[in-house]
Prior knowledge:
Layout: E1 5-6, E2 16-20, H1 22-25, E3 31-37, E4 42-46, E5 50-58, E6 61-65, E7 68-73, E8 86-89, E9 94-99, E10 103-111, E11 120-122, E12 129-132, E13 139-145, E14 155-161, E15 166-167, E16 172-173, E17 186-194, E18 199-205, E19 212-218, E20 222-225, E21 232-234, E22 239-247, E23 256-257
Antiparallel strand pairs: 1-20, 2-3, 3-10, 4-9, 5-8, 5-10, 6-7, 6-9, 8-11, 12-13, 13-14, 14-22, 15-21, 16-23, 17-20, 17-22, 18-19, 18-21
Amino acid sequence: MSRLHLRQHHPDRQHRVVSVTPESAGWDYVGFDLYRLAAGDTAAADTGEREVCLVFVSGKARVAVAGEDLGMVGERMSPFDGKPWSVYVPAGSSFRLTAETACEIAACSSPGVAGSRPPRVIGPDSHGVMTRGKGNNVRYVTDIINETDAADSLLVVEVITPAGNASSYPPHKHDRDAFPEETRLEEVYYHRLNPSQGFGFQRIYTDDRTLDVSMTIEDGDVTLVPRGYHPCAALHGYDLYYLNVMAGPKRLWRFYNDPQHEWMLKA
């Protein structure tokens, strides 16, 4: 398996089934932990020098940040069943999760400044659902933390790609610090399939093909995009969900389309 393709492991002592750090990924900014909790389980962590967005992929849990009870968070029992609840946790703080139901909670992180802003609950109505593309390139996008929201370096978004459709397509990249044409952002994809036995595909490649990896993505897989174009596809019969985490030197998402495929935007 490619080093850019991760599968879930047995839960560790902190109930994490995936853990990506900048050191393990070989990059500078993005971290990603996936907690799988049974009802009654607890998980806790300090944020240190990183800000964290806790995305409730599924389930409900009581959340405390720096000892302050933020109440019960979460509603949907599947990422395909409604919009997300999330919690922003600043750098220099801590969080504690106590599961009310079975939960899957993603801790998306990037460098932060301690004391720069307070914690907050991000409700499902914080952002609307955007439709992007047309035909079998349609997908449905929900921002969780976008570049206009309060954060230090973190960008977080969910996407639902209907069965048979392409996504992150036409192929685009964001690996050069060349604003306003393009910004350098590392990216994590967390994939889910509905029904869960399905699979899809993702390719990560550069213009010179020094990086060119194609992966079969299954339910629960994580892919890392350090650079290059990174389209993915949902096969007939299986909807594809993914959670994107991005961060880089500028908290701006400016991408560059592969010139060989940009023609279809004008078709």
